[in-house]
Design a protein that fits this description.
The chain has 441 residues and is of the alpha+beta class. Helix content is 57%, strand content 19%. The protein contains ten helices and twelve strands. It has a five-stranded antiparallel beta sheet with strand order 2-1-5-4-3, with helices on both faces. A hairpin with a 4-residue loop joins strand 3 and strand 4 (153-164). The radius of gyration is 47 Å and the shape is rod-shaped. The two termini are 41 Å apart. Mean pLDDT is 81; it is low at 99-105, 127-135 and 399-404.
Length: 441
Amino acid sequence: MFQKVHIRLTLLCAGITAVIMIIMSLCYLYVSENGLYKNQFQSFQNDINTITTNLEQQSVISMEWLSKMEAQGNYLFYVLDNGVPFLYNQLSKSDLNGEDKSEADDNPARQRLLEESQNAAQSASLEISLTHADSSYISYHTEFDFFSESTKTKYFGSVIRMGRFSSSLEVIVLFSLNSLEEQFREQRLRFVLIDLAAIVLLTIFSWIFTGRLLKPIIENQQKQAQFVASASHELRTPLAVILSAVECCKSASAEKQESFLNTIHKEGFRMSSLVNDMLTLSGSDNHRFSINPRPTELDTLLMNSFEAFEPLAQDKHITLSIRLPEQALPLCTVDPQRISQVVSILLHNAVSYTPEHGKIELSLAHDKDRAVISVRDNGIGIADEDKKKIFDRFYRVEKSRSTKEHFGLGLSIAYEIVKAHNGSISVQDAPGGGSIFSVRL
């Protein structure tokens, strides 16, 4: 299930980012190509202004000058004197794209290009020509762009018209946009390659990112599954004992029924304790873990816990002692019932796992702005590999699997209570054997 979710999240994350990146690339290309196009057109207009000025200053237009102008700007010139084409138009060695040719011109294709450019020029310059129609001296030019069907090429064009009275000179200048189109294609290809590489990197990054995003969810789901399985296992045992005892009660004598009823009561109490612990942890998971903090004397709280567990320790021939600071500590703002529950869990574990004639010490200390509650025993101790899991739910050290009084939830509850108080709980080895559990508040 999570594999499919991982793939879908990766595709969603990478897909949305890739779409945004492609849209931004297209916008950039549009703005960039528009800018290049306008700059090229502006440059073309400036060149036409220069050419027009040169034409106005010359009384004779030589073929050498036309050839030189074509070579400098990769232009095509069509010159008409009173509507009659110059001989240069037929002898020019520039091809239809404005580049030099080593062979004779394709005159039919050139003628078709001339006709197309004249039509485009006439359409573009009609308004201006009418404006200057009544002048005795005409000198103007108009720039335009058009697409030639005969050469399948885009051009910038300009028509320059000069005349005095009945004499007129018309020069059509064409500039092929093949080089600009090639620049556009190279730029688009670069962006395609960059976008493809970015999409691959985005996909890899999305796979890693979503994997890390799902990792705590997967771990939580596994813990929940383990929690349910462990809870079912723990509930099955007392339930089986209760059902067995009920069956035995049906055919047992009155004397034996009392023993079976005591067994049912004991196992029912165990089930009630387990359910209460599970409800406590469920409230913590749902952020409904209620605490009612108020200023509390921790030394008094620890003394009450000590007195409550002293008889239990004596029954197992364990020496239980308490060590409190000589000077009174400042009040600590905690929930006294919850902290008493934590101390009870730690003391209960210590009494359960400490052998007869062992020692347990409950102590309170002050470290800067923290109160430190410690429970030290000289019991069986905890292996290093178990220390990392000791606060997990239903986790019990293998040596204590046979201990029915413990479900492996006590330390989990203590951890959640301390965390709700913004404190910390830890375990370390005690010198000479045993363990030290420390709670910092």
